From TrEMBL:
Signal peptide: none annotated. It comes from the Bacteria. Keywords: Membrane, Transmembrane, Transmembrane helix. Pfam families: TctA. This is DUF112 domain-containing protein.
Amino acid sequence: MKVKETAKKPYGICPASMTIWNADQTYNKKGILGSYALRNNMFDVGAMLLIAVIGYFFLKLEIPIAPIVLALILGPLAESNLRRSLLLSQGSASTFFTRPICIFFLLLAVLSLCWPLLRKALSNRKKAA
């Protein structure tokens, strides 16, 4: 990519693909060397190349990367806190369903997952009327 193209689309450079190519499309040996130097392991280089290919297809298919990055950051935190709450409740998952604030957030999560279907049903009902 040229610098002008990058200025038009600031989201156009995925961090994983930036480890392989520079902005002027020249081969970047520093990204591969950096992924190898982290643990002296060729698996890291393969993982970096695989993530770069996945990132490239995400950009081509216009899949947003922000939710994936958010999940990668918040996932381990949520898992450790889930483990901690299960230890405090001695393995009982009923603590997630007995407290009002927990029920509120569970209902909010279910509503946010079902919202596209509800919106589509409501729009079909309005069109039929």
